[in-house]
């Protein structure tokens, strides 16, 4: 009886001693994951750029240039006016691109634009349509 009580106490002490270390390891794993997610570049990746350029080299697309004032505002990072029509990228291109949560890729005039869900312009690809 004394032996089983001693074993129980030793086991309880071991569990209480190891619990903070296990929690710290789990927490550091979550922190590492958050750091990796935060370090991802916000703009188009090299792979995305390559996929987009190759797609439009293979498929013709009629794009009209933006009016000069709006093009300047877009280049400066200013918000786009609500009347500017954005077009969805073709479904074939969307299927080739890696999924991006919280972002949208659209066509504005003769530019491919990466937008956050809030509508903030993150990156712009120009000269894709030739």
Write the layout of secondary structure elements.
Layout: H1 2-39, H2 46-58, H3 68-76, E1 87-88, H4 91-96, E2 103-108, E3 111-116, E4 121-126
Antiparallel strand pairs: 1-2, 2-3, 3-4
Structure description:
- Helix content is 51%, strand content 15%.
- By secondary structure, it is of the alpha+beta class.
- The chain has two domains: 1-39; 42-126, inner membrane protein cigr (Nuclear Transport Factor 2, Chain: A, Roll), CATH 3.10.450.160.
- Strands 1-2-3-4 form a four-stranded antiparallel β-sheet, with no helix packed on it.
- A hairpin with a 2-residue loop joins strand 2 and strand 3.
- The longest helix has 38 residues, at 2-39.
- It starts with a helix and ends with a strand.
- The relative contact order is 0.13.
- The model has no long low-confidence stretch (mean pLDDT 76).
């Amino acid at each position: 009886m004394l032996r089983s009580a001693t074993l129980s106490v030793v086991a309880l002490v071991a569990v209480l001693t190891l619990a903070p270390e296990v929690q710290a390891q789990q927490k550091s794993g979550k922190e590492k994951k958050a750091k990796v997610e935060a370090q991802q570049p916000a703009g188009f990746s090299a792979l995305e750029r390559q996929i987009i350029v190759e797609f439009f080299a293979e498929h013709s697309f009629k794009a009209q240039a933006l009016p000069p004032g709006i093009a300047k505002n877009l280049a400066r990072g200013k918000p786009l006016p609500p009347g500017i029509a954005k077009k969805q990228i073709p479904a074939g291109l969307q299927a080739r691109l890696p999924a991006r949560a919280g972002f949208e890729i659209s066509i504005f005039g003769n530019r491919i634009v990466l937008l956050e869900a809030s509508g903030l312009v993150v990156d712009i690809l120009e000269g894709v349509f030739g």
